[in-house]
Specification:
- This protein has about 450 residues and is an alpha+beta fold.
- The chain has a single domain, classed as 4-Layer Sandwich (Anthranilate synthase), CATH 3.60.120.
- Strands 1, 2, 3, 7, 8, 9, 10, 11, 12, 13, 19, 22 and 23 form a 13-stranded antiparallel β-sheet that branches. Strands 4, 5, 6, 14, 15, 16, 17, 18, 20 and 21 form a ten-stranded antiparallel β-sheet that branches.
- The termini are far apart.
- Its EC number is 2.6.1.85.
- This is aminodeoxychorismate synthase.
Length: about 450
């Protein structure tokens, strides 16, 4: 098997400095661990000029699209990396929440007003990878990449990028699509379904939006400074729009056939003082309601991973851990497994997408209720940003704390898991707390 070639570059803790060189290139994409402030992620990965771009067709079965992705990886060809790097060339892109419609039979009551393709990937034969553990930045070239292209990329990233960034502005403040009364009515309906035995938990979200103009990259740079998170990302769209994600949540990772998912369920705001902050964290850790919600999703994910993992390999090594971010504390668990011999990372996606932490339990019934009660489709929100390389290495986020800039407007969503004893006022406030820092940052640009 051939090995990727590597060209070292000066280390940059902030990937925005290198991404500026490709900001306006076709298919420009950045998967960003939120450094130098966020401390959980290890790698940043950026690329552009994909060999091909693939979008799922409106009526295409999910299995057929995933097989198309598999075929493209095969065409690019297997490759090794000379040392510990996460990507040897392959696919980078997004799955929208509504890609779930291509995997399961679901109703279609919610309006598709954003018209975002349900999945979109580029096939990339190079990447610039920064390793924040080793403090290195390097270009990684798939063996199929011709030498002249390697030299062009080395030259491009060896000189400082001086492209001026057009500012980003909202034309009016972000407004919620739902009134407080409409939100309360939806929650009462969910609790009626729970009492009737339809479900145990439903993740319900509301959308905020405003007209905007300017460069979405300028918005992303400001947002990552205000809310650094380990599963951030920026993906340019062909119409001049972009996906902007400031997510703290991993969906599934596959490395050497070992699988991990890290569901978040349980949230408290950060305190204004150290004492208040510690009290909020302690309250979350001790909350029977939040622990019960988290455990429900852990059970759901054990089942999802069990579809693709070797029998007996699924474990829960971490339960109810505290993770703290600039605006919120979260309750996080970990579920792991080993892929069965005849399964790969795309089979894992087919068996577990969308993530249980942002649907509810049981998953399909919860998704049906979401489609009934949320007036518009989620699109990107609660989907996934991911990479999958030619070796089968994959990492993916759940696209919470995420924004879509498209057709002159910016959209953002906030939500949470609703259970039998949820109080609508508290849930309503939590849905705003989760995105407050994003909305305020955009407002102040």
């Amino acid at each position: 098997m051939l090995t990727c070639s590597v060209h070292p570059l000066p280390y940059r803790a902030n990937p925005a400095e290198y991404f500026a060189a490709i900001r306006h290139a076709p298919g420009a994409v950045l998967l960003d661990s939120g450094r130098p402030i966020a401390d959980r992620g290890r790698y940043d990965l950026l690329s552009a000029w994909p060999l091909e771009q693939l979008a799922v067709l409106p009526s295409e079965q999910g299995s057929a699209f995933l097989q198309r992705l598999r075929d493209k990886l095969t065409q690019l060809g297997e490759a090794n990396v000379p040392f510990d790097l996460p990507f040897a060339g392959g696919l980078i892109g997004y799955l929208s929440y509504d890609f779930g419609r291509h995997l399961e039979h679901l109703p279609s009551q919610a309006q598709d007003d954003l018209q975002l393709p349900d999945a979109r990937f580029g096939l990339y034969d190079w990447a610039l990878i920064s390793d924040h553990q080793l403090s290195t930045s390097q270009l990684v070239f798939h063996p199929s990449l011709i030498d002249s292209e390697r030299q062009r990329l080395i030259a491009l990233f060896s000189q400082p990028a001086v492209a001026a960034v057009e500012p980003f502005r909202l034309k009016a403040p972000m407004q919620a699509d739902l009134s407080a009364d409409e939100y309360r009515s939806a929650l009462e309906r969910i609790q009626h379904y729970i009492q009737a035995g339809d479900c145990y938990q439903v993740n319900f979200a509301q959308r905020f939006r405003a007209q905007c103009h300017g460069d979405p990259w300028a918005a992303y740079v400001a947002l990552r400074a205000a809310c650094p998170t380990p599963f951030s990302g920026f993906q340019s769209l062909p119409d001049g729009g972009a996906v902007l994600s400031l997510s703290p949540e991993r969906f599934v990772k596959v490395s050497e056939r070992h699988v991990e998912t890290r569901p978040i369920k349980g949230t408290r705001p950060r305190g204004l003082t150290a004492a208040e902050d510690a009290a909020n964290a302690a309250e979350l850790l001790a909350s029977p309601k939040d622990r019960a919600e988290n455990l429900m999703i852990v059970d759901l994910l054990r089942n999802d991973l069990g579809r693709t993992c070797r029998i007996g390999s699924v474990r829960v090594p971490e339960l109810f851990s505290l993770e703290s971010y600039p605006n919120v504390h979260h309750l996080v668990s970990s579920v792991t497994g080993e892929l069965a011999e005849d399964r790969d990372a795309l089979d894992l996606i087919a068996g577990s997408f969308p993530g249980g932490s942002i649907t509810g339990a049981p998953k399909i019934r919860a998704m049906q209720i979401i489609d009934e009660l949320e007036p518009t489709r989620r699109g990107l929100y609660c989907g996934s940003l991911l990479y999958l390389d030619v070796r089968g290495e994959m990492d993916s986020s759940i696209a919470i704390r995420s924004l879509l800039v498209k057709d002159g407007q910016v959209c953002c969503w906030g939500g949470g898991g609703i259970v039998a004893d949820s109080q609508w006022q508290a849930e309503y406030q939590e849905s705003i707390t989760k995105v407050k820092v994003l909305l305020e940052t955009l407002q102040n640009l």
